[in-house]
Amino acid sequence: MVKIKEWALSEFWKGYTLFDKLFMLGMLVLQIIVFAVAPDSILGVISGISGVISVVLCAKGKISFYFIGFVQTISYLILAFQNKFYGEVIENVFYLVTMIIGIFLWKKAYDKKDDGSQAVKAKKFTLIQWVLSIISTIIATIITGYCLTQIGSAQAYTDAATNVFAIFAQILMIKAYREQWAWWLIIDIFCIKMWFVAGNWSMVVMYIAWTINCIYGWYNWSKLNKEKK
After folding, report:
1. Is pLDDT above 70 for 6?
2. What is the pLDDT, as a whole number, of residue 125?
3. What are the residues whose beta carbons fall under 8 Å from the beta carbon of 192, sequence distance 6 or more?
4. Whole-angstrom distance, CA of residue 120 vs CA of residue 109
5. Using one digit for the tens of pLDDT, what is the confidence trace for 164-222?
6. Where exactly are the structural domains of the chain?
């Protein structure tokens, strides 16, 4: 019981600045306000709230992000299927598998700090990794977009971009690379457009919150990379 309490404090309290706490609270309040103004399905609300909590935890490098992320991924997968975003469905199935792998990889790279908090040790790209990553994800997006048009996917190339970029970003995330946040930022912008067209405001607001969180995540992971050195 004592170990569980220590783990919970490390994951959800220690190492958080006042700004960190207010940031998460603000993201949650934004999601709740949107639901009050434009009521959505219960599934949409669950996906939105769990999504906001999980990405903030990820931005802090907390392994607990994976457990809340499972809730968000499953609920979002169902929503994507209902809206015929088949690329998003495939993407989220991939998430479920890689998140299990990510738990073990992050556990090996978890680092305890002087204040008793813990966070993953972050890595960063070389120039060559940047160039190769940009070229390969653009080519893969074009190919995937064409394939999705052949099976009648709604918003095929937008769906393809979110699909390809998210798979790549997910790989960067489980391998603890800071650059994941650059790819997540692009994905979130595409998803705002996709769900805006679909008329799902809970998802629009969730992705707006995630866009802001990408900047927050880049900043925190840059600090984690310096602390690693």
Report:
1. no
2. 92
3. 204, 207, 208, 211
4. 6
5. 888 899 899 999 999 999 999 988 888 888 788 878 777 787 788 889 889 989 998 99
6. 2-228
Give the whole-number percent of the chain exceeding pLDDT 90. Answer: 21
Q: Give one word for 196, left, alpha or beta, with left for phi > 0 and alpha for psi -120 to 50.
A: alpha
Whole-angstrom CA distances from 52 to 35, 46, 69, 205 are 14, 10, 10, 10
Give the closest residue to 193 by CA, choosing from 168, 157, 161, 158. 158
3-state DSSP assignment of residue 60: coil
pTM of the model: 0.79
Tokens of 15: 């190492």
The more confident residue out of 132 and 109 is 132
Predicted pLDDT at 21: 82
Q: What one-letter code names the amino acid at 160?
A: A
Sign of the CA dihedral with 108 first, then 163, 20, and 40 last: negative
Token pair listed for 71:
């809730």
Indicate the DSSP class of residue 177: B
Please state, in angstroms and rounded to a whole number, the distance separating the CA atoms of residues 7 and 20. 18
Q: Whose CA is closest to 24, among 11, 7, 37, 43?
A: 11
Rounded to whole angstroms, how far apart are CA atoms 170 and 95?
7
Residues 6 or more apart whose Cβ sits within 8 Å of residue 189 = 211
Torsion angle (degrees, nearest 10) of CA 19, 25, 27, 31: -170
Instruction: Name the β-bridge partners of 120.
Output: 110
